[in-house]
Specification:
elongated, 91 residues, mainly alpha, 2 strands, two-stranded parallel sheet, single chain
Amino acid sequence: MSDPELFADELLETDVRRFIIQPFHFTRGKFVANTREEAVRLMADKLDCDIQDFVGAYMRDYEMTERIIRDRLAEEDITLGQGKDGFKPPF
């Protein structure tokens, strides 16, 4: 995500009161079976890292982005929850 602050502001404009996020699953689902290598190369390129460093780079970026969005939404008393397996929300 290139601009987490802008994205958080756009979420606020929806008037939704709860959002769920979840990091990408690297070892499960159709993504792994069908397009994993191509997608990992693309995402590594976007993160400007080597493929072997991709998971760590992705998780650092995800955690930073989550923190920015969570903090911005909290200013407006909006809930940002963490997804569960299968993207099932906790409510």
